[in-house]
Amino acid sequence: MEFYMPTQIYHEAEAVRKHGEEMAHTGKKALIVTGHSSSKKNGALKDVTDSLDKYHTAYIIYDKITENPTIESVMDAAEIGRREGTDFVIGIGGGSPLDAAKAIALMIQNRDSASSVLYQNMALRALPVVTVPTTCGTGSEVTPFAILTRDDLQTKQSISHRIYPVIALVDGKYLKTAPESVLMNTAIDALGHMLESYFNSKATDYSRMLAQYALEVWGMATDILFGMEAQEGDYDRLMFASTLAGMAITHTGTSIPHGLSYYLTYHKGIPHGKAVGYFLPGYLDSMPESLEPQVIMALRAAGFGSLEQFEGFIKEMLGTIPVTDQEAKEMVEEIANNDRKKKAVPFEITKEQIDKIVQQAR
Amino acid sequence: MEFYMPTQIYHEAEAVRKHGEEMAHTGKKALIVTGHSSSKKNGALKDVTDSLDKYHTAYIIYDKITENPTIESVMDAAEIGRREGTDFVIGIGGGSPLDAAKAIALMIQNRDSASSVLYQNMALRALPVVTVPTTCGTGSEVTPFAILTRDDLQTKQSISHRIYPVIALVDGKYLKTAPESVLMNTAIDALGHMLESYFNSKATDYSRMLAQYALEVWGMATDILFGMEAQEGDYDRLMFASTLAGMAITHTGTSIPHGLSYYLTYHKGIPHGKAVGYFLPGYLDSMPESLEPQVIMALRAAGFGSLEQFEGFIKEMLGTIPVTDQEAKEMVEEIANNDRKKKAVPFEITKEQIDKIVQQAR
After folding, report:
1. What are the structural domain ranges in chain A?
2. What is the ipTM of this complex?
3. Which InterPro entries match (chains A, B) (predicted)?
C-alpha cells in the first residue's frame, strides 16, 4: 500500500491571512483562478488579494471559470497567465476553479504545448498551485486530480497528469454564505468520495483510515444539511471531512456513482454532487453480503441508522433522476464499458447490477 | 491545524525491490547508513544493494552507526560521503541509523559547516534521504526528526532542522529476525508515540486520527509481544502502527515520558523504547478527570482493559527503573525545567505530578 500527500495543509480560522506570507512567497506573480461571483461574496478573493498586496506579490485575476470548466477556458486562462508572466497559480472556489487552476498551471509551464497534452501520458511539470476551497465537496484542495469537460467524448474526465497543490488554505467561514443547495450538493459529493473510496478495490488501511474518519466528522455536521441551525464548528467539520475524503480518493479514485454522474452533468446539467448522490444508495445496495456489516458501519459513522434510512434521505433531498428509458440505457452502457470505474468496485460488478443502481435512482 | 507529510510511503511485501528503481534514481551515488549487523541479518541491506546494482546506481556503505548515535559519528560519515561524492543517503535500521542518515544528509549538503549548525535555528537543506525501517518503534522513516546524543548537555535531542525522508520503504519481513527484546522495546516506543501524541496540547483532529488508528492497529498485533506465535500480518501491523505513530508525532511532538527517558538512556544505557515505556502508565494516571474517558478509550483501542492492567503489563515486561533517590530527583528536576516538553502536556503539569510519574515507575 501507498501513502503520498505532499500538500501543506493549513485548516483554521483566517487560514489565508495567517499563512498569507507563505502563500505570497510561492512565486513572484500569481494568476488567481476563480469563478465569477462566489469568491467575491464569501470574502475569499479579498483575503487572498489583501495578503498578496501585504507581501508585495503581483497578481492578475481570471474570474471566468464556470461550473464544469472546459478545455477552452483552461487554454484561455493559460494564455493570459503566460502573457502576464505569472509563475504560480492560486485557485479559489469549488471544484471547478481548483481543478481548472491545476490544468492552467500545467499549460502555463508547458507554453508551447497544445491542449492535447492534458490527456496524454507523459511526464509534465506544472507551476506551483495554491488552493483555497470555498465549498465542502471537491477535496480538490489536496487531490492531484483536475476534472474537465471533454466535448470530444461528451463527458468529464480528469487530466492525465497528477498535480498536487503545494499549499491548501482551508477555512470553514467561506461556507457561511454558500446557498443551501450548494452546501447540500457539495456535502453529498464529499460523502460519495468517502463511500466510493471505502468500498473500493484499491482501498488500503491508509485510505480506509481517512475515509472512516471523514465519515465520522461528516456525521457530526449534518444538522446544517437538515435545515437546522449550524452549530459552532459545523462548517469547519464539513470542510475537514471534505479534505479528508479528498485525501482518501487520492489513493483509491472514485467508482460507479461518480462514473454514472458524469452523464447527468454533461447531458442534463445536473450539479456534480447531486448527480453523484442519486446513485450512492444503489451502489451500497449492490455490495455482496460479506460487505454488508461494513456498509452498516460506514452509514452509522455518517449518522444514518440503516441503508433504507439513507435511501430515504437521498430521495427526500435530491428526488429522482430525470432520464428516459433510452437515456438510462445509455448511462448503463457507458459505465458497463468503463473498465477503469468497474475495476474500482471491490467485487465483480455485472451490467445487471449497474442497471439496478440506475433504476433505483429513478 | 496543520497537516504536512510529504514522504512517499510504500508499505508492502518486498517494498525495497518493488520500488528499487525509484529508490535508485533518487541520485547518482548513495551513502548507505546502517548499523553493524542487524541490516545484514534481516536482509534489508542486501535488498537495497541488489536494487542499486540492478539500476546501476553506485553506493558506499557506512555501517558504524551505534545505538544513540553521536555527533562525531554523523560528522565521520558525512566526511566520507562528501569525499566519495554521494548525492543521496539511504538509512537502514532502527531509529539510530535513520535519524543519523538525516543529520548526515544535512552535513554532506552543507560541506563547509561545523557540527554546531545541527542545533542552530537557520534554514539549511539536506541531500534526499530514503529510509528502510527494520524495527517497529521509531517512526523515523517518516518523521522529520533526527535525535542525536548531545554529550555537551548530557542528553539526547533532535537537531533543529526538519528533514522529511523523500521515500520510506516499509516491509514487515525485517522484523522476523529481530530479537524479542528489540521487538518489545520498539513496539513500546511506538505505543509511547501514540499516547504522547494523542494526549498532547498540540493534538489536532489530524494527529488524533493518526494516533487513534495506530492504537487500533497496534492492539491487533500484540500477540507477538506476549510471547505468542505471530499471526499472519502481525509484523506488518506493528510496522504500520509505528509509521502512523511517526506521522502523529510529526504534528505534535512527544511529551513527558520521552522527556524522562533520555536521562535513563544517557546515564543508564537503557534502550530508548524501554526507557519511555516505564513512564507511560504514570503519565496517563496524571491526566485530569476530564480526560479519563479518553484515556480508557485509548487503552482499550490498544487492547488493554484498564489503566491498572496496562500498568501491570508494563511492570511485567519492563520491570522498574534502576535509579537512586538522588537520580530520581535529578530526572524530575530536568523535566520540571524543560518547558518544551511540559508545554506538550494537555494540562498544567506540576513538579509534584512529574515526581509522581517517576516514583510510579520505580
Report:
1. 8-173, 179-360
2. 0.94
3. ADH_Fe/GldA, ADH_Fe_C, Alcohol_dehydrogenase_Fe
